[in-house]
Amino acid sequence: MEEIIATILFADLMNSTELAKNLSLVEYDEMLVDFQTTMFEVVSHHLAHYDYKGFGIDSEWSIVGDELRLFLYSGRVRFDIRSALLISTKIKLAWLMSAFNQKVLAEGRLVSRIGVGINCGKVIKDERPWRGRMGQAHPNVEGYAINLTKRIEAASREGNVYQIMVGASLYKRCQQNNHINVSFSEPRSLTFKGLGQKIPVYEVVSFINFEILSSLPDYFREGLLEKMEYTVSEAMPEPWVLIILLREYISILASGRDENLETKAIELAHQAAEMLQQKPVIYNMLGWLYTHGKRVQNLEMAFHYFDQSLNLDPKNEAALLHRARILDRMGQVDLARHAYEELLFQNRGHAEALRKVEQYGTGYG
Amino acid sequence: MLLAQQSAPGLFIDVGVIVFLFATLIVGFLLRRRTKDKIKELESRAANLEANQADILENLDDKISRLKEIINTLVMKLNDSSKKINAILETNETIRAEIDRKVKPLKASLDDTAAKFGSTHDSMRKRIQQSSNELERMAQDITAFADEIQRMRDFIRERTIDLEL
Fold it and tell me: What average pLDDT does the structure give for chain A?
């Protein structure tokens, strides 16, 4: 028996009971097969891609009906959290692009969505004798954090962006480190049946990670960009897809694969800025496009968008950094130094800011 | 009268026959004389030849004698040479045996060296082949490494962008 920190993920089909009512038994089963296959392909590929051993060593997972359960306990909590966020986004994306949902989308109906709950906490890892007798000799995890995560997942129906809900424990860990670019909504205090007290939950409102697409199985990636573009051009686009698509456009532009995307990316970013409540990340993307674009480069516009981002989120490190860089490029030394000093105020260990301030000769430290 | 009685053509024929007979007699006489002279000359030559033959035979005997002496001398010299050659051959045989005796270990050593060289050559060839394979493998590794570095560079670039948005 061992006490460990596990990152727990529950995901299931939203409104599956309603779907079961409206579909014939065979149609419902076909949908379930599509869902389960999609979950299996994405999760198994992800775990293999990131060197999880499975079999209760550092992870375990299962699919039962319309529910996916995943427990990650590699000993690197930050890595597990990042993996859980990646898997959440990837299963949502893969399900949206599945044959079932593409058919629904083509008919102009509401697509079937996946709700996700993630949390991390202490659990007991142990081998149960009865499991061994069932031929499942590997250890598994049990604990209150698992029950809590299941409740958090149930709250995902109330979300309106990613519909990925996280508990306070995971939220705090993400806030403590700046290696995962994830933003959360304001906390919602929810009373869960059987828990007897209000529990804060947070919805993921932006998750920037280039690996969402690059770590998908190859056959999922085939034609994925076109499908995503089609999805966001529909009357009821999924807002979180806009962020993933924009991030992919930026990857393509940064690698120099297609410069023609610049205008398209800016148009999409404006569309996203109108739709999403979490605007700083979109303004940062617009700022990035105007800073690094070859055809649309405009430092004044870039500065404007980073400034907009800072108006909404004054502690936004990315916007502070880009603003300082632009001022430096413009030759506004005093303003640039001031901007870097502002960044150091937020993050005293920021390497680039420290180096720049030292160059300017202030001896900041 | 007789002559006068005879016709003119008959006279001419008689005269012609008489002239012919005289001419034949004269020619016969001359031929006989000439034949006699020839016989005399031949007899004289035969006598000379006999005298010369005796001289020639006498000279020939001398020459043969001298030739015999020369041949004898040559035979003696040949015998000497033969002895010398035999002696040389015997010496050569000794030398050859000695050379053989001395060369034998050298030859064995050379054979051994040749075998060793052959073996070394094979080994070298194998090593060169191995080195060639190793180089090829290293080239592949370097290419893979370059690809890996490129992937890492891409990863770092993308990761940086992630954190700067």
Answer: 91
Q: Which of residues 240-279 of A touch B (CB under 8 A)?
A: 247, 250-251, 254-255
Residue showing tokens 């605007």: A279
At A61-104, the pLDDT tens digits run: 999 999 999 999 999 999 999 999 999 999 999 999 998 898 88
Contact A210 B164 (CB under 8 A): no
**Cβ separation A179–B161 shorter than 8 A:** no
Amino acid at A270: H
Which residues from A are below 8 Å from B158, CB to CB? 210-211, 214, 251, 254
Q: What is the pLDDT of residues A132-150, one digit of tens each?
A: 888 888 888 999 999 999 9
Instruction: Tell me if chain B has a CB within 8 Å of the CB of A291.
Output: no
CB-CB neighbours of A178 under 10 Å = 13
Domain boundaries, chain A: 2-213, 231-360
Chain A residue whose CA is closest to B150:
A255
Q: Using an 8 Å Cβ cutoff, are A321 and A355 in contact?
A: no
Q: Which residue of A has its CA nearest to B156?
A: A210
Q: What is the 3-state secondary structure (H, E, C) of chain B?
A: CHHHHCCHHHHHHHHHHHHHHHHHHHHHHHHHHHHHHHHHHHHHHHHHHHHHHHHHHHHHHHHHHHHHHHHHHHHHHHHHHHHHHHHHHHHHHHHHHHHHHHHHHHHHHHHHHHHHHHHHHHHHHHHHHHHHHHHHHHHHHHHHHHHHHHHHHHHHHHHHHHHCC
Nearest-CA distance from A253 to chain B in Å? 11
Which residues on adjacent β-strands are paired with residue B22? none
Topology of domain A2-213 in CATH is: Alpha-Beta Plaits (3.30.70)
pLDDT band at B9 (very low <50, low <70, confident <90, very high): low
Nearest residue of B to residue A215 by CA position? B155
Cross-chain residue pair A247–B163, CB shorter than 8 Å: no
All residues at 6 or more sequence positions from B3 whose CB lies less than 8 Å from its CB, including other chains = B11
Beta bridge partners of A6: A121
Q: Hey, how many other C-beta atoms are within 10 angstroms of the C-beta on A287?
A: 28
A207 has a chain B CB within 8 A of its CB: no
CA angle B118–B120–B126, rounded 5-degree value: 105
Furthest C-alpha separation in chain A: 73
Given this model, what pLDDT does residue B36 score?
A: 92
**Is the CATH code 3.40.640.10 the one for domain A231-360?**
no
Q: Compute the nearest-CA separation of A70 from chain B (Å).
A: 25
